[in-house]
From TrEMBL:
The entry's keywords: Membrane, Molybdenum, Sulfate transport, Transmembrane, Transmembrane helix, Transport
PROSITE patterns: ABC_TM1
Organism lineage string: Archaea, Methanobacteriati, Methanobacteriota, Stenosarchaea group, Methanomicrobia
Protein name per UniProt: Molybdate ABC transporter permease subunit
Main location group: membrane
Entry similarity comment: Belongs to the binding-protein-dependent transport system permease family.
Topological type in the membrane: Multi-pass membrane protein
Designated gene of the protein: modB
Location in the cell: Cell membrane; Membrane
Listed InterPro entries: MetI-like, MetI-like_sf, ModB_ABC, NifC_ABC_porter, Sulph_transpt2
Superkingdom of origin organism: Archaea
Pfam families: BPD_transp_1
Membrane-spanning intervals of the chain: 26-50, 70-91, 112-130, 142-166, 194-216, 254-275
Organism encoding this protein: Methanoculleus frigidifontis
Every ABC transmembrane type-1 domain range: 70-272
Length: 280
């Protein structure tokens, strides 16, 4: 009897020890994977800051190519974001609140730029709005040229960045409980008034997050811009294009521009987290 109890106790201790070993091993594996991932992300970013001195960084910021690229990028990204908000908000609201024939097709076309290679987006825009494009040839007859202009930069940014806002805005509108909208309508408010005074304020945090992500995506656009707008300093050369160009001549200017984009991207992530946390 005692031997049976001893064997049961031994087996119980052995099972506990084995579970502890497996749990410890799993924990160590997760820590190792997390450490490798963090190193993979942080080492390249840290290398940018280690490869340039503060003096060289601030000296590069005074270079015309850097100033022109920074000013053009901020201006075009801001305009693109405003355009996406103006056109994307009604579309997002309709898709969140209405059922209609072809809705799935509209959603698919809206999300298409996310998975579309930037070079494909660029050549598609060129075939549509270039001088010999499907639409561009008619505009060219009136002396209107879009390709290889600053407006082409904005169109490219709108094309690739709009899904980030539209998807976020639609999810935000869908999260708004309709009971608040119905209550406002029973009090005599029109649909437009309900949208502006009830729905949008409730979904505000999600809309702001989507707008911030759209601005960041537009700021970092490269492939579609260089294909459709070209790479002309002061006119179409945004920060990513300037990095590509200056790497061939002055590596410090390229690093300085890259650091600026890293700082802006980091600020964007913090802003989205702050807005989301306030919403929660």
């Amino acid at each position: 009897m005692d031997s049976i109890r001893y064997r049961k106790a031994s087996n119980f201790v052995r099972d506990i020890s084995w579970r502890q070993v497996r749990r410890t091993g799993l924990t160590l594996l997760l820590i190792l994977l997390l450490a490798l991932f963090l190193l993979f992300v942080t080492v390249p970013i840290a290398s940018l800051f280690l490869r340039i001195t503060p003096e060289a960084f601030f000296r590069s910021l005074a270079e015309p190519v850097v100033l022109d690229a920074l000013a053009l990028s901020l201006l075009t990204a801001a305009i693109s974001t405003v355009i996406v908000i103006l056109f994307g908000t009604p579309l997002s609201y309709i898709n969140a609140r209405r059922e209609y024939r072809g809705k799935e097709l509209v959603d698919t076309l809206t999300d298409l730029p996310i998975v579309l290679p930037p070079a494909v987006a660029g050549i598609a825009l060129l075939m549509a709005f270039g001088r010999r494009g499907v639409v561009g040839e008619y505009l060219d007859a009136f002396g209107i040229q879009i390709a290889f202009t600053t407006f082409a930069v904005i169109l490219a940014q709108v094309f690739v960045a709009s899904p980030f806002y539209i998807r976020q805005a639609r999810a935000s509108f869908e999260a708004v409980d309709r009971i608040y909208e119905d209550a406002a309508r029973t009090l005599g408010a029109s649909r437009l008034r309900v949208l502006l005074r009830v729905t949008v304020p409730i979904a505000w945090a999600g809309l702001v997050s989507g707008a911030i992500l759209t601005f960041a995506r537009a700021l970092g656009e490269f492939g579609a811009t260089i294909m459709f707008a070209g790479n002309y300093q002061g006119r179409t050369q945004t920060m990513p294009l300037a990095i590509y160009t200056t790497m061939q001549g002055n590596i410090y200017d390229a690093i300085s521009l890259a650091i600026l984009l890293v700082i802006i991207s980091f600020a964007v992530i913090l802003a989205v987290k702050f807005v989301t946390r306030r919403k929660t």
